[in-house]
Specification:
Elements lengths: L5 E2 L2 E7 L2 E9 L4 E2 L2 E6 L3 E4 L3 E7 L3 E6 L5 E2 L4 E10 L6 E6 L2 E2 L37 H14 L41 E2 H17 L1 H6 L3 H18 L6 E5 L2 H5 L14 E4 L6 H17 L5 H20 L4 H4 L1 H7 L6 H15 L2 H13 L15 H12 L2 H17 L15 H17 L4 H18 L19 H4 L9 H5 L29 H4 L3 H20 L1
Antiparallel strand pairs: 1-2, 2-3, 3-10, 4-9, 5-8, 5-11, 6-10, 7-8, 11-12, 13-14, 14-15
Helix pairs in contact: 1-19, 2-4, 2-6, 2-19, 4-6, 6-7, 6-10, 7-10, 10-11, 10-12, 12-13, 12-14, 13-14, 14-15, 14-19, 15-19
Organism: Didymodactylos carnosus
Catalytic activity: Endohydrolysis of (1->4)-beta-D-glucosidic linkages in cellulose, lichenin and cereal beta-D-glucans
EC number: 3.2.1.4
Length: about 575
């Protein structure tokens, strides 16, 4: 297929061996209140669609999907864009028929999507990384992975770096980041291989990291990394406090994603002022605000004994942000349109409202937040089985966190339903990787490994879930035949899609020549987890493949906390 070619309503957005990503644009005639979309393919496929729930599947060829609770109403005269990802094993995975509520959708001429050939997995080479991957007993050194991952977060820091900066090729950057009234918005983390500060995934990252530090503090302490872990969290929460410029004003993004992605250079060399967008009563963002409240509440518990005053400050901001989120409801990506092309809030804000309330309940024991969780649970139907857990969809997190905190049966049943699906029924690669999405496949595996470890700690199928988590993490660390963590273990990636590590030492120029270089990145981005392989375990170390080879702060979040959980169990043996 030709990338970007629109065929009436069908556009192939991306393509890889044996799969593709597409958008089906559906013109809406009469107003629709609740929809079912049928997709029929030429051969058996694995289908991923985030905008609908699968109601039926006949032979992996004909799928019927029903709207989510937030996207069932489609206005007359509008065009609905239905996004999906297809992986197929046979000759063809072409979409040959589509309907909405029984009415045919014109696909136009069907251009074939060719499966191509799947190349062999890159052969494993000798260990060249600076970190020894195994302990004397042959087990992976999970403590070393924690040390590496925290170094990755330090490489992602924006703003004025501390005197003890451990990344020699990074220095102060983006010191001009300001709000519309000159507010200091320096600090925080660069999102991925770029330099935008997207607060929604940054907050989600912070919550997941804090959860791991909170519940597996012994793992960080044994690794000698507890102070560094707290500092990693504080680098984010200090920035969030800066963004919270008044009770009902919160800056949600610094940097234009489109402008940023048009450049390939060091962050230290960026000279232009960057735009900043804020949420207000008139421009709400319940999902981002409630997720930030969760991040602050979780981090407050990490600091409760180490720095009580700072912990109290975090709780104060968390309470205000949660109230702002709940009182003035709306999706942040509607209020900050620049974010919608990169981190659109597909799942709506109901899951984050419950997530924020759940973390505030755990942090404060205030019964008000317990009531709020139940209210959101019912209003937004959060007891259903989600298909993933990540920066956008927090339902599984709510289910599992509340199962741990309360032990209540409705939460435990939902948590068990999710993890049973993930462990027993979700798609797996031939080597056993749970495969929930082509984009950032390892990020998804790390996230579900972590939350199902938490379900195990709640007494739900404990040994089965711990074994599953170990299998996923060990796949990433080397059981697959290679390591996917840069600087760790065997045949790790050398060419991540990451601007600053692709740059030569200063003062040499860094531009698109660095992007196009066939050589490994000059700087070793220790600890970064790449997107990972496809569903057939195929991976190629190519800088221009941002699906398999980009890195991101949220990629490492659940993964790092899962590693901490496994280290916790290993330390008890």
């Amino acid at each position: 297929a030709l990338i970007g070619l629109t065929l009436a309503g069908l556009q192939i957005v991306n393509q890889w061996p044996n799969g593709y990503e597409a958008t089906l644009s559906i013109p809406i005639g009469n107003t629709i209140n609740g929809w079912e979309i049928m997709l029929k393919f030429a051969g058996p496929v694995s289908l991923q669609a985030w905008l609908g729930d699968v109601q039926s599947n006949v032979g992996d060829q004909t799928y019927v999907l029903r709207n989510k609770d937030y996207n069932g109403n489609l206005a007359s005269g509008s065009t609905y864009e239905f996004k999906f990802v297809v992986d197929f094993k046979g000759v063809s995975g072409n979409l040959i028929q589509a309907t909405i509520n029984g009415q045919n959708i014109d696909l136009g001429e069907n251009i074939p999507v060719n499966p191509g050939t799947t190349a062999a997995t890159t052969p494993a080479g000798s260990t060249q990384g600076p970190i020894n991957p195994t302990l004397p007993n042959g087990n992976y050194d999970y403590g070393a992975v924690l040390r590496a991952s925290l170094l990755f977060y330090e490489a992602q820091r924006a703003g004025k770096l501390p005197a003890n900066n451990r990344i020699p090729w990074r220095s102060d950057s983006m010191l001009m980041d300001r709000g519309e009234n000159g507010e200091d918005l320096t600090g925080g983390y660069f999102d991925a291989g770029d330099y935008v500060k997207f607060n929604f995934p940054m907050a989600g990252t912070t919550t997941l990291l804090a959860w791991g530090v909170l519940d597996y503090e012994d793992a960080y302490a044994t690794a000698g990394e507890l102070v560094n872990a707290r500092e990693a969290l504080k680098w984010a929460t200090d920035y969030f406090i800066k963004c919270h410029v008044s009770k009902r004003e919160f800056y949600g993004q610094v940097g234009d994603g489109n402008d940023d992605h048009a450049s390939w250079s060091r962050p230290e060399d960026w000279t232009k002022n960057r735009p900043a967008w804020k949420l207000t009563n008139d421009k709400p963002g319940s999902d981002l605000l409630a997720e930030t409240a969760a991040a602050l509440a979780a981090t407050a518990m990490v600091f409760r004994t180490a720095d009580k005053a700072y912990s109290d400050t975090l709780i104060h901001h968390a309470r205000e942000l949660y109230d702002f989120a709940n009182d003035r409801r709306g999706k942040y990506s509607d209020s900050i349109p620049n974010a919608s092309s990169f981190y659109n809030s597909w799942s709506g804000y109901g899951d984050e409202l419950a997530w924020g309330a759940a973390w505030l309940y755990r942090a404060t024991s205030d019964p008000r937040y317990r009531f709020e969780v139940d209210s959101h649970w019912n209003e937004f139907s959060l007891g259903g089985q989600p298909q993933e857990f990540g920066w956008d969809d927090k339902k599984a997190g709510v289910q599992i966190l509340m199962a741990r905190v309360t032990g209540e049966q409705k939460f435990k049943q939902a948590a068990e339903s999710f993890c049973n699906y993930i462990v027993r029924n979700a798609p797996k690669s031939p080597k056993g990787l749970v495969f929930l999405s082509q984009w950032g496949a390892l990020r998804h595996a790390g996230n579900v490994a972590f939350v199902c470890l938490q379900a195990a700690a709640a007494g739900i199928n404990t040994q089965e879930y711990v074994n599953f988590a170990a299998k996923q993490i060990n796949y990433i660390l080397g059981d697959s035949g290679r390591s996917y963590v840069i600087g760790f273990g065997n045949d790790y990636p050398k060419k991540p899609h990451h601007r600053s590590s692709s740059c030569p030492n200063r003062p040499a120029l860094c531009d698109w020549n660095a992007y196009n270089s066939p050589n490994p990145n000059p700087q070793l981005l220790v600890g970064a987890l790449v997107g990972g392989p496809d569903q057939q375990d195929f991976y190629e170390d190519k800088r221009d493949d941002y699906i398999k080879n980009e890195v991101a702060t949220d990629y490492n979040a659940g993964f790092t906390s899962a590693v901490a959980g496994l280290a916790h169990y290993a330390n008890k043996v």
